[in-house]
Amino acid sequence: MNQRAATPAWWTLSLFVLSVAPAIAQPALPLSRIRLPEGFRIEIYSRRLDGARSMTFGKEGTLFVGTRKEGKVYAVVDRDRDGVGDVVYTLATGLNEPNGVAFKDGHLYVQEISRLLRFDNIEKHLDAPPRPKVISRDFPSDAHHGWKFIAFGPDGLLYVPVGAPCNICVRRERIYATITRLDPDKGGQPEIFAEGIRNTVGFDWHPKTRELWFTENGRDWLGDDLPPDELNHAPRPGMHFGYPACYGKGNPDPEFGRGKDCSQFTPPVLELPAHVAALGMRFYTGKMFPKEFQNQIFIAEHGSWNRTVPVGYRVTLVRLEGNRAVRYEPFATGWLQGREAWGRPVDVQVAPDGSLLVSDDKAGVIYRISYKAPASEVPEGRVGEND
To answer: Partners of 370 in the beta sheet?
Structure first.
């Protein structure tokens, strides 16, 4: 493994070339245990990404990856476009849970717990990244649910959630339990777009309607089967999704919902199983998968931490008809074996070639799920598009 370091500072830079010697090779992961629909295949896209979480692509095809406690931000480059990351750059270390990464106009935005940073013209400087600029310091510093997923919306604004700083509570500051948005070029206080959201670590906009959809994690300590995690739809600003008073489709919380009318809040499109920890979600917009996957939702379920029987640890698929969820089904399973998990999916990202990338902060890798039509489905006289 080759490694180079920049001038010591509060951040460091290192370059890892993935032609590593066998003596320091990572143990092989049991990918044969992953179950996928027919025609799909899972492989390792990139290794040695300790704590890999949220992902975003740059204009030139660089995959940027955030982390939490590792404090690192990575860049993965597939130089020969063969579906395997060739080089991993560590762009920064020592950050405060830099989970959120977003890319716009050549710049990489990185969200710490309370600060928004920007690395200018980053794809031109992967081997010597510039010192980041601090764009905002206007987010709370609470560590509980303080890590953030971020993404630019169709309106050009950056959407940044602020989780509840507790399992369940009421805080006077309105910014908690919300999704906010801001113009990073202008700065200023973030605007609240939606509220009553305990904690979301994944959202996306429908490719046709351009409306926001997001996952939400329910509270703990109501038993193994309550409350549900949620898939929500926010077609306009100003909507309230019930937290802390109500959860699911009109259910009052036993502590904070007494005397509350849950009908005044927006219910979820879909109740997900309790404690699956639904995190990253994306609409599938690629062309590699069969047509029935187009504009459907993939969700990374990180997995339960205190349920009697563990659940989650998988990637699921939500099939939509208009704005209705008509089916919820497993797509990739096998990270959970009995009561033990060897991997934990965090985020999903559609790659430029139409494959689906999945980050795993436990195994420290990114997987690539691809599709090739079975021979029986390829029309006579044609070869599969990946041949």
So the answer is: 41
Q: Break the chain into its structural domains and give their ranges.
A: 36-374
Q: How far apart are CA 372 and CA 42, in angstroms?
A: 11
- Report d(CA 23, CA 1) in Å as an integer: 10
Q: How far apart are CA 386 and CA 329, in angstroms?
A: 26
Read off the pTM.
Answer: 0.92
What span, in angstroms and rounded, lies between the C-alpha atoms of 338 and 351? 31
Residues 151 and 204: their CA atoms lie apart, in Å, by: 8
CB 94 within 8 A of CB 10: yes
Kindly state the helix (H) or strand (E) to which residue 43 belongs, with its residue range. strand 40-46
Q: Angle at the Cα of 30 (from 25 to 35), degrees rounded to 5?
A: 145
CATH 2.120.10.30 for domain 36-374, yes or no, is yes
Tens place of pLDDT for every residue, the chain, 387 residues? 333 333 333 344 444 333 332 334 567 999 999 999 999 999 999 999 999 999 999 999 999 999 999 999 999 999 999 999 999 999 999 999 999 999 999 999 999 999 999 999 999 999 999 999 999 999 999 999 999 999 999 999 999 999 999 999 999 999 999 999 999 999 889 999 999 999 999 999 999 999 999 999 999 999 999 999 999 999 999 999 999 999 999 999 999 999 999 999 999 999 999 999 999 999 999 999 999 999 999 999 999 999 999 999 999 999 999 999 999 999 999 999 999 999 999 999 999 999 999 999 999 999 999 999 988 765 554 433 333
Q: What is the DSSP letter of 268?
A: P
Residue 291 identity: K
- Contact of 246 with 257, CB cutoff 8 Å: yes
Determine if residue 48 is left, alpha or beta; phi over 0 gives left, psi from -120 to 50 gives alpha, anything else beta. Answer: left
